[in-house]
């Protein structure tokens, strides 16, 4: 579980990083300033350390030189023959050790220079109490093999285990002197611990660290406050933009001052005002259009009703007229039907253009619907000696749709198919699955030329303008069918080959508002390419 | 040309602002054996109604002087006479508003004269006196020939259409009626038409006969199918 918690925390952090400019700026500022503060601190510390140590080294070298000079003076004052070597060494060393104890340094006396001078731990070496001879590095001891000059080096000061002193850094200075007793050369090492300097350095670095942490915290706070002042109006603008997008066109930003943010707010408000005006304009246009449709509807329909009734009256009485007038009455009647159909479809299409069409969806069995349509078009099929067959692969085929509109689509497709089948038969396929339902209307008639399948849905388009029109289609049928299909979120597609017939496929989502991915029926019929007669029933 | 069996079939009041249409309607109605009177103004409609006492009213909704909806409400307020709306907008809210204000049926312009006559005949059919018949539905008693519905001896005022709807359901209490079947049997439609007609009138009927119209017990909805009579 901790791993999961960690990864979820990480994901949250990443989301915050992606989403929040403020977090990004604050983190970047803190990281960059941490780098800068570290670099500056490091240089500062090194500088302090160098100057501290240099000063100390100068001081200790001077002190060592004084001590050595003192010792030489003391030795010179003693007559060479009065004392033996051990006494003279004691005389030399004791005052220095005493002074060293009071001033905080240790002393090592090595020698005489002879067979094995490099190993200080052998006998003959005298030291201050508890001082370990390992405090004098071999490199300094080696130095005196070839030279008698005074020399110094850094070292680590070591004490014996029973001393109450801790090991630490130090400086060791070496000087060579001659003992009058045996005229041998001895090396005197002064070991100065740097504890004081180390303590000072520790104090300085701790202060620097504390100052750096406080500085970074202040920087983070400052950045947070500054970015907040910038980000807050941006977030506010985002919320207002979201509300505008959701349709609350009255929303505006508050403008304060004259800075960049205020100007952004002003521009934003101007944009919103322009959008609002244009949307209002479009709404007004749409309203006017709808109003116009409604008015035209009323104004045209009333006189048409009167004409219609008069026409019916004349048509019913045509037997009493002379043949010419009777024929005129017949023509009047037929064209009135056409006019009425055309007016109806024009009004329907203008209703779509005005966006006033509403879907009233319910669960419908498409097989029943197709049967109803085929029954209703039976008189036309009979008149054209065309057989209409229904092939349903599954039963029932359900779809949530507006049955009035779908019936109109199918009626249109079947009517067109009968019209163009040239007595070779029409087959209506119905199929459905869990996501979609489809109706395909197949005829084996004249077919469509290449490229015409895209044109059939255009308003008032005709395959062959010279061809005789017999059924009095208005040229709007397929356009309305396509609009009806789009209202359902469905597909209406056409396939056609010259002299092989056409197939129109209507695909509807199983549930209203569903998205179509595939159709249960193929657009290109499986019998495409076979001889037309063979496919007819 | 003149209708064969002729004779007096009923009085029709035509309220429409279009003089030509009204006159044409008069001609067609006369040919079908109806007596008719024309009225072209909404504010004159009630006076003509009282004076003429029609059996059916044909009412346009867009009228000068007074709105057709108001006229419809006022007529329904004092009489159950069948009202058929003439409307130019068959798919809008107007139809529902018209039906809710008391109209029994509607025809959309441009209508075929025969369709209009069929609508009028269906509305007048219930005026023909049937044989004596008594039905019971819920706690209601229906005297079919007397056109009366009573609960515990107290009369309930129903329009002829609402009465027909109730009788249709009460005659076969075991059967569920789809809206299409009701349209055919009560309104006389031969093809499926607007099922809003049924919905609106069932609501109106319920508001008059149910104890609690929100939880109907006499006219019960069968979800996805239609309506049936509730058990007694």
Could you explain how this protein is built, in words?
The complex is a heterodimer of chains A (537) and B (232). By secondary structure, chain A is an alpha+beta fold. Chain A is built from twelve helices and twelve strands. Chain A folds into three domains: 119 residues, Beta-Lactamase; 93 residues, Orthogonal Bundle (Helix Hairpins), CATH 1.10.287; 174 residues, Heat Shock Protein 90, CATH 3.30.565. Chain A is 54% helix and 15% strand. In chain A, helix 5 runs parallel beside helix 6, helix 7 runs parallel beside helix 11 and helix 8 packs across helix 10. The C terminus of chain A is likely disordered. Chain B has 232 residues and is of the alpha/beta class. In chain B, helix 6 crosses helix 7 and helix 6 packs across helix 8. Chain B starts with 10 loop residues before the first strand and ends with a strand. The N terminus of chain B is likely disordered. At the A-B interface, helix 6 and helix 7 of A face helix 1 of B.
Features of the shown structure:
heterodimer, A: about 525 residues, alpha+beta, Beta-Lactamase, Helix Hairpins, Heat Shock Protein 90, 3 domains, 12 strands, disordered C terminus, B: about 230 residues, alpha/beta, Rossmann fold, 2 domains, five-stranded parallel β-sheet
């Amino acid at each position: 579980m901790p791993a999961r918690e960690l990864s979820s925390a990480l994901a949250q952090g990443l989301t915050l990083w992606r989403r929040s400019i403020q977090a990004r700026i604050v983190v970047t500022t803190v990281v960059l300033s941490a780098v800068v503060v570290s670099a500056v601190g490091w240089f500062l510390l090194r500088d302090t350390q160098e100057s501290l140590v240099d000063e100390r080294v100068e001081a200790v070298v001077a002190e060592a030189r004084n001590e050595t000079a003192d010792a030489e003076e003391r030795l010179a004052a003693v007559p060479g023959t009065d004392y033996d070597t051990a006494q003279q060494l004691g005389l030399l060393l004791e005052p220095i050790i005493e002074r060293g104890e009071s001033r905080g340094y240790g002393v090592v006396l090595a020698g005489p220079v002879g067979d094995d001078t490099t190993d200080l731990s052998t006998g003959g070496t005298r030291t201050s109490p508890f001082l370990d001879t390992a405090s004098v590095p071999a490199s300094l001891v080696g130095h005196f093999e070839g030279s008698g000059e005074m020399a110094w080096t850094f070292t680590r000061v070591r004490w014996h285990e029973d001393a109450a002193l801790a090991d630490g850094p130090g400086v060791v200075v070496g000087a060579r002197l001659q003992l009058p007793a045996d005229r041998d050369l001895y090396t005197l090492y002064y070991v100065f611990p740097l504890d004081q300097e180390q303590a000072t350095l520790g104090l300085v670095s701790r202060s620097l660290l504390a100052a750096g942490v406080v500085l970074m915290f202040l920087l983070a706070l400052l950045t947070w406050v500054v970015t907040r002042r910038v980000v807050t109006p941006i977030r506010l603008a985002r919320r207002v933009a979201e509300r505008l997008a959701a349709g609350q066109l009255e929303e505006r930003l508050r403008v304060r001052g004259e800075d960049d943010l205020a100007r952004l707010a002003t521009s934003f408000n101007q944009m919103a005002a322009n959008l609002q005006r244009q949307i209002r304009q479009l709404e007004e246009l749409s309203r006017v259009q709808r109003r116009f449709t409604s008015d035209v509807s009323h104004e045209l329909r009333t006189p048409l009703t009167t004409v219609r009734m008069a026409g019916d009256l004349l048509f019913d009485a045509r037997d009493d007229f002379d043949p010419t007038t009777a024929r005129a009455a017949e023509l009047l009647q037929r064209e009135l039907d056409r006019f009425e159909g055309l007016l109806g479809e024009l009004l329907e299409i203008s209703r779509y253009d005005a966006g006033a069409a509403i879907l009233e969806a319910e669960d419908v069995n498409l097989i029943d619907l197709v049967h109803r349509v085929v029954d209703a078009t039976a008189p036309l099929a009979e008149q054209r000696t065309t057989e209409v067959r229904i092939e349903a692969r599954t039963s029932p085929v359900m779809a949530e749709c507006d049955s009035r509109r779908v019936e109109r689509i199918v009626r249109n497709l079947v009517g067109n198919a009968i019209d163009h089948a040239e007595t070779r038969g029409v087959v209506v396929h119905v199929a459905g699955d869990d996501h979609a339902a489809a109706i395909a209307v197949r005829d084996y008639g004249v077919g469509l030329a290449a490229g015409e399948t895209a044109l059939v849905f255009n308003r008032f388009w005709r395959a062959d303008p010279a061809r005789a029109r017999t059924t009095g289609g208005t040229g709007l049928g397929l356009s309305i069918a396509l609009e009806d299909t789009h209202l359902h979120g469905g597909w209406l597609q056409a396939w056609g080959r010259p002299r092989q017939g056409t197939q129109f496929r209507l695909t509807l989502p199983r549930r209203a508002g569903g998205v179509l991915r595939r159709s249960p029926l193929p657009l290109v019929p499986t019998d495409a390419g076979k001889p037309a007669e063979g496919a007819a029933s | 040309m003149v209708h064969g069996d002729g004779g007096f079939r009923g009085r029709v009041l035509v309220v429409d602002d279009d003089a030509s249409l009204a006159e044409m309607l008069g001609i067609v109605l006369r040919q079908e054996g109806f007596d008719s009177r024309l009225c072209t103004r909404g504010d004159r409609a009630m006076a003509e109604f009282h004076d003429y006492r029609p059996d059916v009213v044909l009412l346009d909704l867009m009228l000068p002087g007074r709105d057709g909806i108001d006229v419809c409400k006022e007529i329904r307020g004092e009489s159950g006479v069948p009202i058929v709306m003439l409307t130019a907008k068959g798919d809008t809210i107007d139809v529902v508003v018209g039906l809710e204000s008391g109209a029994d049926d509607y025809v959309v312009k441009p209508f075929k004269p025969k369709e209009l006559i069929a609508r009028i005949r269906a509305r007048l059919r219930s005026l023909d006196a049937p044989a004596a018949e008594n039905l019971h539905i819920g706690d209601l008693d229906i005297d079919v020939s007397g056109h009366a519905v009573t609960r515990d001896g107290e009369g309930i005022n129903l329009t002829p259409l609402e009465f027909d709807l109730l009788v249709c359901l009460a005659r076969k209490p075991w059967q569920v009626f789809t809206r299409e079947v009701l349209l055919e049997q009560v309104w006389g439609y031969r093809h499926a038409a607007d099922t809003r007609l049924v919905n609106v009138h069932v609501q109106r009927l319920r508001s008059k006969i149910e104890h609690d119209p929100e939880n109907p017990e006499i006219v019960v909805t069968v979800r996805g199918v239609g309506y049936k009579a509730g058990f007694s």
